[in-house]
Amino acid sequence: MNNQPPKDSLAARILAGDVRAAGRLMRWVDDNLPEAEQELAALYPHTGNAYFIGITGNPGAGKSTLVDVLITRLRAQNLRVGCIAIDPTSPFSGGAILGDRVRMQQHALDRGVFIRSVATRGNLGGIARSTPAMVQILDAMGFDIVIIETIGVGQGEVDIVRLADTNVVVAVPGLGDDIQAEKAGLMEIANIFAVNKGDLPGANRVVRELRTMLNLHDRAPDKTAWRPPILKLTASQDEGVDKLLAAIFEHRAWLEEHGEHLGRERARAEQFVRLIVAEKLNARIETAVKSPEWQDTIQTLLDRTSTPHDIAATLLNDILGQ
Amino acid sequence: MTENTPQTRTYRVLIGKPGLDGHDRGAKVIARALRDAGFEVIYSGLHQTPEMLVQTALQEDVDCIGLSILSGAHNTLMPEVVRLLAEEQADDIFVFGGGIIPQEDIIELQQAGVRAIFTPGTPTTDVVAYLQTECAKRYA
Q1: CB neighbour list of residue A17: distance below 8 Å, 6 or more residues apart
Q2: What's phi and psi for B132, nearest 5 deg?
Q3: B6 — pLDDT class (breaks 50, 70, 90)
Q4: Average pLDDT for residues A239-254, to the nearest whole number?
Q5: Do residue B2 and residue A24 have CB atoms under 8 angstroms apart?
Q6: Terminal-residue alpha carbon distance, chain A
Q7: Secondary structure in 3-state letters for chain B
Q8: What ipTM does this complex have?
Q9: Closest to B43 (Cβ–Cβ): which among A33, A102, A283?
Q10: Contact A225, A196 (CB under 8 A)
Q11: B52 compared with A155, residue with greater pLDDT
Q12: How many angstroms separate the CA atoms of A122 and A88, rounded?
């Protein structure tokens, strides 16, 4: 795989650090252009060096503000930082207002920072369909750290867990009692809890509730297991973010010490493939159901002369035979 | 990335507030109208420099930049964005503007490369229709 991408291709320009080329390829990926495939293929051998940090939490928890301060801190350590900031697409119009960047514009002129705003375009799970490819572009471009800020999520949108090395769940006071913390989903994916808006009343209670929850769920008596730290901070005042960054690096060190980083990398690589396969299969399904015969097939279901499982088996045969 | 997937482009617009004024109602109204028309709108927030907006436009790969200025500094700020885009070989990204801008300035701004100016009272539907046409030309 030592083939260099053709000169002047987007991939070659991206490897040379061309911001516009990277922005453009991200667009191709988002717009699902077939040309994106070979550019991504040319970049793939150059990936595998970046560290991925996921930032997730409820809407309004202060994720963008936190990311802004994290970028500043990482830049102070001379690390180059890429950021994918995801916001939801309107289900009604297909449009989106992407406003995460508003909090991060102090980095706009820093060549060591690349921020991309992304809309979910209907994808569930808290990230966009294009997010895995976009982080690979930033990785290939030489960014040391890639931060992925999910949309504001609640309890089930946890696709970030398969993408990031360290998952930070941002919690805030005032969103519910301790039963909320007991629910599955978001709480289970945290490698680190950041209780933001620590200057608000109730912040200490959130810390306590999270601690109780972790103690109850301590399913690993194993002393070497990673125990998610719970850190109180106030990102808007830049208070406590240094501790969060230290915890992120501790988690990274722990992953490496226990060989877990390889497992994460493996899972991530596998996920890239699964997503591509799922997408191609979906496209074939969409095509198949547009055929005129499909309506007749559905009619047999309505007439109860066939079953959903029968039809599904036939459809699977058809699309896999292509 | 797949065979048979219909290829539709989603237009991306950067709405920027360069300069010192804090009057962002117009920018937000336009952002909202464009979102409702299916655009992806990146909003810059207040107090941006032309340099910041141009770097943002490159990272975000937008089709156009809309500049909302109510400070009176449009004659300086708008042409500067156009100039910086050209400097980055990104003058295919077109610039339009909105704000309280006198008629005689509009002509000058257009000569300086600002594609269109929308003054107060313009129906948002006019702005949306204009941008849809102009963006479509980029992919024709």
Answers
A1: A141, A142
A2: -60, -45
A3: very low
A4: 97
A5: no
A6: 28
A7: CCCCCCCCCCCEEEEECECCCCCCHHHHHHHHHHHHCCCEEEECCCCECHHHHHHHHHHHCCCEEEEECCCCCHHHHHHHHHHHHHHCCCCCCEEEEECCCCHHHHHHHHHCCCCEEECCCCCHHHHHHHHHHHHHHHCC
A8: 0.93
A9: A102
A10: no
A11: B52
A12: 8
Instruction: Identify the residue whose tokens are 């290939």.
Output: A140
Nearest by CB: A95 against B5, B37, B88:
B37
Q: What is the mean pLDDT of residues A133-149?
A: 98
Write out the DSSP string of A103-154: GGGGGTT-TTEEEEEEE-TT--SSS-TTHHHHHHHHHHTT-SEEEEEEEE--
Contact B63, B138 (CB under 8 A): yes
B18 bridge partner residues: B48
Predicted pLDDT of residue A225 = 86
Question: Residue A231 in contact with residue A243, Cβ under 8 Å?
Answer: yes
Are the Cβ atoms of A276 and B10 closer than 8 angstroms? Answer: no
Whether residue A180 is predicted with pLDDT greater than 80 in this model: the reply is no
Tell me, what amino acid is at A221? P
**A17 CB near a chain B CB, below 8 Å?**
no
Q: What sign does the CA torsion over A267, A281, A127, A175 have?
A: negative
A108/B58 touch (CB, cutoff 8 Å), yes or no:
no
Residue with structure tokens 């989603």? B10
CA dihedral angle for residue A289, residue A293, residue A295, residue A300, rounded to 10 degrees: -120
| Residue A290, both tokens | 């547009």
CB A171 within 8 A of CB A196: yes
Q: In this structure, what DSSP letter does residue A102 have?
A: G
**What pTM was estimated for this model as a whole?**
0.92
Confidence (pLDDT) at B1 = 36
- pLDDT over 90 percentage in chain A: 70
Find how far residue A111's CA is from the centre of its chain: 23
**Which member of B9, B32, B40 has the closest CB to residue A119?**
B40
The CA distance from A267 to A275, in Å, is 12
A171 to A29, A185, A193, A226, A247: CA distances (angstroms): 32, 14, 7, 19, 16
- Specify the DSSP class assigned to residue A44: G
DSSP reduced 3-state for A55: strand
- Residues A257, A226: contact at Cβ < 8 Å? no
Torsion of CA A97, A102, A108, A110, to 10 degrees: -130
pLDDT digits (tens, 9 = 90+) for A44-54: 999 999 999 99
Cβ–Cβ of B2/A32 closer than 8 Å? yes
Q: Residue B8 phi/psi, 5° resolution?
A: -115, 140
